[in-house]
């Protein structure tokens, strides 16, 4: 991996009134610092429902946990509903260790929503 490549990225799409944020790679302090402002802007602009997909997250530390907690805070402030799509066993284990697995609504797959109003997905480093 070159210095210009980041070990994380996100992709978003909007389906109906739900914004889906797919997080990819290593969620650490650098990811929190780099992705945080983008995620918060997305949540501020979103309708009330936010789904964060953790299936492609390969690493999660305190910075990644802080990112998830900040997303939860922003969504709650807007009166919205946040759901996390369960990540790998390693990511799920970390959330259990820090006793946050019960603090989020965790689902196993994308919720079924109407296909109308779909925006094109885009990738953000």
From TrEMBL:
Protein name: Anti-sigma factor antagonist
InterPro entries hit by this protein: Anti-sigma_ant (IPR003658), MlaB-like_STAS (IPR058548), STAS_dom (IPR002645), STAS_dom_sf (IPR036513)
PANTHER family (UniProt xref): ANTI-SIGMA FACTOR ANTAGONIST TM_1081-RELATED-RELATED
Any one Pfam family match given in the protein's UniProt record, by short name: STAS_2
UniProt domain STAS: residue ranges: 8-100
Family according to the record: Belongs to the anti-sigma-factor antagonist family.
